[in-house]
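Researcher: Let's run the pair from yesterday's discussion. Sequence first, then tokens, for each.
Model: Starting with the first of the pair.
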Amino acid sequence: MSDRRSLVTGGGGFIGSHLVRQLLENGETVRVLELPDVPLPSGVEVVRGSICDPYSVRKAIKGVQRVYHLAANPNLWIRNKNDFNLINYEGTRTIFSEAARHDIEVIVHTSTESISSKNNPVNVSAQYRLANMPGPYCRSKYMAELEAIKASKNGLPVVIVAPTLPVGPGDRSVTPPTRMILDFLNTKTPAYLNCGFNMADVRDIAKGHILAADHGRIGERYILGNENLMLEDLLRWIEEITGLGMPKIRIPYWFAFMTGLISECVADYITHSPPRAPLTGVRLAHHPMFFDSKKAVSELGFPQNSVRQALADEIEWLMNNGFIARRLPLLKEV
């Protein structure tokens, strides 16, 4: 049993819930700062509140040795765009401000691959600019990463990790990567834009956070990714795993962009419900988002487990938890 106490902000999220579970399995005392309506596992210390509230953050950080800062709004569209800045940027500033008052061993800051430039494949040396960010979510996360870099230069022990698209079981809040997979499984997407991206097993990404705390160099950035894929590759895997036919019609980028523009305008001004094709997501798909995770593998020992198996595990979990509307010929319900 370890005498270490670790704080996980956003411990009820997709990556966060796996991280909490792994820390508990390692024998650590785990404290979670999470919003009131988010379910959490037993065996954790719970502080209910927001990262935007200094009092909640101060209460959560007191007495911990490590901080894993994952809390953020991960969606590509929200009704109030200012909330991206409030939560993802200002919330991160609050975390670092309160952490500076305590003797923290290490702070692992979770950034994202979606702020990365058009280098191909993208590695940790790629340079970014605020003007290059394809939407308010990406801008807020980019500003948060700049704050993490600034904090490390000012003496805080910050290590930055940038996960690529997570895949695997347990995404109860249905983050954008899972939403994409679900829309194909439930035939809500009849055609596709053949974009390129990188995926990694969510359980590996959670493990990567712990490895970054154990072995990461202060002020360094580590990309937590695995396999570079085209969307047509992912659709072929889904067909092989489920037996369901996937869309065969490819659409050009200009058509996807116009669809995203119209659907987001309708969402912003009429329905106030998430659009089927968020414009930020379409812009991200304009260039292949391929990534190189060699630094995380060599320096941290970041695992590279099968992405296809993680996809199969996710689909089975989605089926068993009632997210999939269709019967899957090649999967049996447990």
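Model: Moving on to the second of the pair.
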Amino acid sequence: MRKKITGVIAVIIAVFMLAIPIQSVDAAPAKFKNCTELNKTYPGGVAKDSKVKNKGGKTKHKPFVSAEIYKSHIKMDRDKDGIACEK
């Protein structure tokens, strides 16, 4: 009798485990075509870390800090100050 109950519980647990959606931990950051597209989501651009300073002067918006997103858009950092597409 115990073996049947244990088997039923194991099947129920397996069914619930399959029903739970699993998100990937290593999800790739969004890739934008150009700065106009990136600025729709991140109005101040994307900084590689919170310690970078903007070389271009005053900006309207504070940049979003994300090393992964910055790394995938490094070519959009024209002045090489660590902030891509700053406004």
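Researcher: Give me one sentence on the second I can quote.
Model: Helices lie at 2-19, 35-41, 67-72.
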